[in-house]
Amino acid sequence: ESTDFSRINDKDGSIEASHCDETTQWNLFGRRFDFHPAINPNSGLRLVWDLLSMLLVVYDMGAIPFQLFEPESNLFFDLVAWTTRLFWTCDIPLSFLSGHTKPDGFIEMRLRMI
Predict the structure, then answer these.
(1) What's the whole-model pTM score?
(2) Could you report the per-residue pLDDT of 49-71, keeping only the tens digit for each?
(3) Residue 88 exposure: Cα atoms within 13 Å on the Cβ side
């Protein structure tokens, strides 16, 4: 069975239904849980991820040129360097799983269309 996702109409703010077949449903103790592999671009998770990426871009703008001076290694810079490496590595597959909003206001959540 498929699940409906929201579509917001820009003209009057009404919500329409769009259809997605890429949903897994689980029943646990009589409750139905839907698992959607795509991440809504308007979700709180995506907002936090985008804000963190902006912060790390600003940090990288200073840290990468600073490496030209070959500073001594310390725990703080090593931790932040590994954190940014891991973040950008995780960002790549997350981008392939994030939906996007089309010009007509449709939120595309189908993985094969992302």
Answers:
(1) 0.67
(2) 999 999 999 999 999 999 999 99
(3) 11
